[in-house]
Amino acid sequence: MTELLKNKDTVKLETPKTQKLAESETKKLEKSSTRAKKDKAKYKVNNPENALLLKLKDGDVVIEMFDDDAPKHVERIKELVRQGFYNGLKFHRVIDGFMAQTGCPYGTGTGGSGKKLKAEFNRRPHKRGTVSMARAFDPDSADSQFFICFSEAPWLNGQYTVWGEVTSGMEFVDMIKRGNGPNGMVSSPDEIVSIEVIADL
C-alpha cells in the first residue's frame, strides 16, 4: 500500500530555464513553388506582377493595376506595398455612396510617403471599384493616398489618376466603416490589414 507524501516530503520541480531564440535564429518553413503557383492562380488575375491582394477585416480584395495607363503610379504603389508602407493604415475618410480613402501614415489625410507623383490622367472612368489617387489642388501632388469608389463618380474623370480596379472582393470594400465627421472623417476607422503584390505570394 502506497502512502501519500506530506508537503514537506515532496520535491518541487524547478521551472525550466528556456532561452528565447532571436527571430533570425528560428527556422521558417518556405512555401513550395507548387503551393506558391496555386496561391497566385486562385486569384485569377491577368498579371500577378500588376495585381494586389488587399486584406481587410471582412475579407480579401483583389486589385488589378493599369500599368499601361498609369505606369509611374503603379510602379510607386508597388514599391510602397513591398516596403510594407500601407499595412495597418486607416481608412480615414469614407463617404457613403462615394468612396473610401486611405494611405495617410498619420490617419488624418495630411501625410504621405514624401514623394510626389506627376499626374497620369487617363480615360479610365471613376466607377464602382475604381482605385484612384487622392491629391491636393496641384494636379501633381499625389503621393501615397488613394481611394476606392463605391459607385460612379464621373465628375472626377480626367482630374485624378486612375491606376487600378477591384476585380473581386468589392463586397468587403462595401463593409468599410463610414465616416460621419466633417468631409467623411471616420471615428475609430477600419484599417488595411495588409497589402501584397500577388506575384510575391
What does this structure look like?
By secondary structure, the protein is of the alpha+beta class. It has one domain (49-200): Cyclophilin (Beta Barrel), CATH 2.40.100. The chain is built from three helices and eight strands, in the order αββαβββββαβ. Strands 3-4-6-5-7-2-1-8 form an eight-stranded antiparallel β-sheet. A hairpin with a 2-residue loop joins strand 1 (51-56) and strand 2 (59-65). The longest helix is centred in the middle third of the chain and has 13 residues, at 71-83. It starts with 32 loop residues before the first helix and ends with a strand. The relative contact order is 0.22. The mean pLDDT is 89.
- Helix-residue proportion: 10-25%
Number of helices: 3
Mean pLDDT metric = 89
Terminal residue distance? 63 Å
Class based on secondary structure composition and strand pairing: alpha+beta
Order of neighbouring strands in the sheet with most strands: 3-4-6-5-7-2-1-8
For this structure, the CATH topology is Cyclophilin
Q: What Rg is obtained from the alpha carbons, in whole angstroms?
A: 24 Å
Strand content: 15-25%
Describe the secondary-structure layout.
Layout: H1 33-41, E1 51-56, E2 59-65, H2 71-83, E3 93-95, E4 99-102, E5 130-133, E6 146-149, E7 162-168, H3 170-173, E8 194-197
Antiparallel strand pairs: 1-2, 1-8, 2-7, 3-4, 4-6, 5-6, 5-7
What's the gist of this structure?
By secondary structure, this protein is of the alpha+beta class. The protein has three helices and eight strands, in the order H-E-E-H-E-E-E-E-E-H-E.
